[in-house]
Amino acid sequence: MSTEHVLPDSNTVMYGVFGDPVRHSKSPVMMNAAFREMGINAAYAAFQVAPAQLAAAVNAVRALKFGGVNVTIPHKVAIMNYLDEIDDSAQTAGAVNTVVNRDGRLIGFNTDGIGYVRSLLAETNAGLELHSKTILLIGAGGAARGVAFALAHERPKRIIIANRTREKAAQLAAEVGRIAPCDGIGLTDLADINRVDIAINTTSVGMSPHVDDLPADPALFCGPGSIVSDLVYNPLETKWLRAAKELGAVQHFGLGMFIYQGACALEHWTGRQAPVDTMRAAVVRSLA
Length: 288
Ligand code: ATR
Fold this sequence. Notes:
By secondary structure, the chain is α/β, with parallel strands linked by helices. Helix content is 34%, strand content 20%. The chain has helices at residues 27-38, 54-63, 88-93, 112-123, 142-152, 166-176, 239-246, 255-270, 276-287; strands spanning 13-19, 42-48, 68-71, 85-86, 98-102, 105-109, 134-138, 158-163, 182-186, 198-201, 227-230, 250-252. Strands 2-1-3-5-6-4 form a 6-stranded mixed beta sheet, sandwiched between helices. The longest helix is centred in the C-terminal third of the chain and has 16 residues, at 255-270. The relative contact order is 0.13. The structure holds 2'-monophosphoadenosine-5'-diphosphate. 2'-monophosphoadenosine-5'-diphosphate is lined by residues 139-144, 163-165, 168, 202-205.
């Protein structure tokens, strides 16, 4: 590990995350570890930005020549009003999680979906290819949207979106269906579907403190060899992932999406490959 630039000095370029609340964020630990490993003189902090202050905060990015920022709840949609350009990734997701300051021009990206796909490919079966796969998404909210479009671009055999509110599943499925075969169903229809290759929980069901909740019963559509994935990473092993393991399925943990969305953001900012292992180790250390 490089020991250069451990402390900020007069050449340090600032980065950060805007959110409200934001004090729980693991992004500063992850990004500062990455900058250190890469030998880049940059520092990353968490900024609690109230919704009424978002425009001023974006202007601060310009005025203080930040290299970029991440954006989290509740600013992911509202920030689109204040940027100079919205990349296709953010346009389709309908939300921005990464802003790049390119010589004073602020460009909004969304790395959640592509980060999810990278993590799925890197962290499950070696050589996994999605072309022949049937993929089930539980949930049809903002997180599902980003993941569904990123998966659709990998040309899977079929995507099924199952949501408590069936209408929302049908609506999202109609949009994603322009890219890859996609159906929208209600959670109560899950008993009727055949086995799927990959099942992904995109809802917050099972997140701490509600650790005994299950978004659906994976025994309905998963078995040995299926991949079962959760976007929730607090706790690291949710009840959904534990149930999957009992069925002999391969677990894919939510922490991976967090790491890889950060890796993709860092790559937009620096044009260099992100040190994913260092980033993961820093986050895991901070969770221990
Ligand atoms: P996010 O941006 O995190 O996806 P969201 O846009 O509010 O948040 O979407 C939350 C998703 O989780 C929705 O699909 C929601 O289902 P509804 O559309 O029916 O509201 C789903 N969800 C949240 N709590 C749930 C619960 N207790 N049981 C089932 N689904 C739930």
